[in-house]
């Protein structure tokens, strides 16, 4: 019967089909000899066709084995089905050409239909095993939930194709939905503007899985396999999207948190509170005891807050603040938050009392009543105002009603001060003072540091200490650096014959709007005077590449300021010292001041820094030298130079 000729057509159709493929495609699929390949294919099909008609169990087993071979070679299901379709088409043409009854084709069509369905079934099984091996085993946080969900779903898929009655949770009951409903995730995806897209992908996964389930139950495995491949792609997109959200969450500021909450509060007309804690003495503890100890303190605070507010309602921000969020609060909950604050203070004191200084927290509770109207910038200003106020009174938790705070005269004064400061810097209304760096032995000034001063309209000099925190907090440092450099350029003759050092923040160099002028001004000044630059050690650690890019074009002497704050990236520091003419290390003043009280730890740190510096051929400067006692101790240690009121006070030279 002509049906028995079906396998005999395979070899000729195989050769014709291979002729239509590129050499690259054939090489990729491991086809070296076309004749041998097609002959082998014909033999396989003869066996399969025979088993299809005589023994379906053997037929199924052979198809599964054959599919495993295809899968390992990387042959796609679409490629295989395309060959089979061409085979059937040619066979049907032959039946029609010879005028034979159409019923003769039914057996061939039935064979190909069952064969392709079994191939798809086997591809599903093999893809599940492969996918399970590719899932990362060491993910954390949100991405871990995505991976765990996929693993669970793969087991469900495996059970479904074997005929078991399995299903996945409805979308609203899914673990991933609980992530999407969490405040921290919403803040992160809102900042990336990816919330809607991630929600859409998650919804599609559930819709596609229902389709997949229906096709599997009806044993229609080809569309089931295609849908499963789409589900895999959607899971990959979801994983990448959620990983991006996690990355953003690690870089959030308290401003980002508040901005999101305000936007949602206005939209939903719901009140909320934000408890914001500021760990104190952490910078010094990181310097002396290392970041591991500092992180232990942060972890202790964070775990207590999560136990109270919930896992996803607590965010650790890059500006050093830790935020606990509560929606729809009442007075009793506010009282509980106050108790939590004092409980945390006691716990930190008890657990870390062996540290010197003992760590502590300051904090403030912002209450946003329902329907309160406040724009983003005002809210940001309120955070900075409240943070400053809480640091001045760390023993108490400041409870601040935002509605009342907006109308507060002290807040308005604070904001007007910031506006005044910004205006002064933008207009370049800064004065320049200098303070000497003196030999510890002779007292002679070897060079001078340029300091900025602001002068009030009434002629009063505003100390830098009163405004420097505001300048950093409100991100005005680039305006200050630019104002100082412009003033220096206008008055460079005043400093003729003197060695001077100026301070430049890496943040300034990150502003495209000011960077070119900064570079041009530095070039001008280095040609006109003996100029050096002070850079903080933390800047070298955090912005090494940027600083290297900027300063490699200038022959500037460099002093590393606030030394002792970047232990975690010592290799960057050494690279910088080897690449640039670092002449001085200036020890962080917080260590120096502690010598007055006889701090042995501070003495040990200064001694270690001095010894290391001298071994690298670098001189050491100690700042805040205000007494003979401190001077004598520094001389004993071997510190080379000193800066402080004991030797000279800042002198105003350019108004």
Brief summary of the model shown:
62% of the residues lie in helices and 14% in strands. It is an alpha/beta fold.
SSE diagram, text form:
Elements: H1 6-19, H2 23-28, H3 34-54, H4 56-73, H5 77-97, H6 104-134, H7 141-161, H8 175-180, H9 183-192, H10 195-217, H11 221-249, H12 254-268, E1 272-280, H13 282-289, H14 291-309, E2 314-316, E3 322-327, H15 331-351, E4 360-368, H16 376-392, E5 397-401, H17 402-406, H18 409-426, E6 431-439, E7 445-455, E8 461-462, H19 464-473, H20 477-490, E9 499-503, H21 506-509, H22 512-528, E10 530-536, H23 537-542, H24 544-551, E11 557-563, H25 570-579, E12 582-587, H26 589-594, H27 600-615, E13 619-622, H28 628-637, E14 641-642, E15 651-654
Parallel strand pairs: 4-5, 7-9, 9-10, 10-11, 11-12, 12-13, 13-14
Antiparallel strand pairs: 1-3, 1-4, 2-3, 6-7, 6-14, 6-15, 7-8
Helix pairs in contact: 1-3, 1-5, 3-4, 4-6, 5-6, 6-7, 6-11, 7-11, 9-11, 9-12, 10-11, 12-16, 13-14, 20-22
């Amino acid at each position: 019967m002509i049906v028995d000729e079906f396998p005999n057509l395979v070899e000729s159709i195989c050769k014709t089909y291979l002729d239509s493929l590129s050499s690259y495609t054939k090489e990729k699929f491991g086809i070296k000899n076309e004749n041998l390949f097609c002959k082998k294919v014909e033999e396989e099909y003869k066996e399969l066709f025979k088993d299809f008609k005589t023994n379906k169990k053997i037929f199924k087993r052979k198809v599964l084995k054959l599919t495993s071979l295809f899968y390992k070679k990387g042959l796609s299901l679409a490629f295989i089905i395309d060959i089979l379709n061409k085979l059937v088409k040619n066979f049907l043409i032959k039946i029609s050409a010879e005028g034979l009854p159409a019923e003769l084709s039914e057996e061939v069509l039935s064979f190909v239909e069952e064969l392709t369905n079994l191939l798809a079934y086997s591809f599903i099984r093999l893809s599940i095993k492969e996918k399970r091996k590719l899932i990362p085993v060491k993910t954390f946080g949100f991405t871990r939930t995505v991976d765990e969900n996929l693993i669970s779903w793969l087991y469900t898929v495996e059970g479904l194709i074997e005929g078991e009655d399995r299903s996945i949770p409805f979308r609203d009951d899914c673990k991933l939905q609980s992530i999407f409903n969490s405040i921290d995730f919403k803040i992160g995806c809102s900042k990336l503007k990816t919330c809607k897209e991630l929600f859409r992908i998650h919804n599609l996964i559930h819709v596609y899985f229902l389709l997949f389930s229906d096709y599997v139950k009806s044993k229609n495995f080809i569309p089931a396999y295609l849908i499963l491949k789409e589900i895999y792609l959607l899971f990959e997109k979801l994983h990448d999207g959620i990983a991006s959200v996690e990355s953003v969450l690690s870089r959030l500021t308290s401003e980002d948190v508040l901005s999101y909450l305000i936007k949602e509060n206005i939209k939903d007309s719901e009140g909320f509170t934000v408890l914001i804690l500021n760990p104190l003495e952490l910078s010094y503890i990181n310097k002396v005891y290392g970041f591991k100890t500092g992180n232990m303190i942060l972890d202790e605070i964070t775990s207590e807050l999560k136990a109270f507010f919930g896992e996803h309602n607590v965010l650790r921000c890059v500006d050093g603040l830790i935020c606990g969020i509560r929606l729809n609060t009442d007075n009793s909950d506010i009282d509980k938050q106050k108790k939590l604050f004092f409980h945390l203070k006691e716990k930190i004191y008890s657990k870390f009392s062996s540290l010197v200084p003992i760590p502590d927290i300051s904090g403030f509770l912002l209450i946003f009543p329902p329907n309160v109207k406040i724009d983003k910038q005002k809210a940001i200003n309120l955070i900075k105002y409240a943070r400053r106020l809480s640091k001045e009174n760390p023993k108490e938790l400041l409870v601040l009603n935002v509605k009342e705070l907006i109308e507060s005269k002290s807040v308005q004064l604070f904001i007007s001060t910031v506006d005044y400061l910004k205006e002064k810097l933008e207009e370049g209304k800064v004065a320049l003072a200098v303070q000497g760096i003196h030999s510890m032995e002779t007292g002679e000034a070897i060079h001078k540091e340029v300091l900025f001063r602001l002068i009030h309209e009434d002629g009063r000099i505003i100390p830098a200490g009163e405004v420097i925190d505001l300048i950093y907090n409100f991100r005005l440092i680039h305006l200050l650096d630019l104002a100082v450099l412009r003033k220096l350029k206008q008055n460079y003759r005043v400093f003729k014959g003197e060695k001077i050092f100026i301070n430049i923040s890496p943040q300034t160099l990150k502003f495209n709007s000011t960077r070119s002028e900064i570079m041009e001004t530095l070039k001008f000044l280095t040609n006109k005077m003996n100029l050096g630059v002070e850079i903080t050690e933390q800047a070298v650690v955090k912005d090494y590449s940027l600083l290297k890019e900027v300063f490699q074009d200038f022959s500037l002497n460099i002093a590393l300021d606030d030394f002792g704050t970047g232990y975690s990236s010592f290799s960057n520091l050494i690279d910088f010292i080897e690449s640039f003419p670092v002449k001085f290390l200036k020890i962080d003043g917080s260590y120096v001041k502690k010598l007055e009280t006889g701090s042995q730890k501070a003495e040990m740190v200064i001694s270690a820094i001095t010894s290391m510096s001298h071994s690298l051929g670098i001189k050491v400067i100690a700042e805040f030298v205000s007494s003979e006692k401190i001077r004598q101790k520094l001389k004993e240690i071997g510190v080379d130079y000193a800066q402080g009121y004991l030797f000279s006070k800042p002198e105003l030279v350019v108004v």
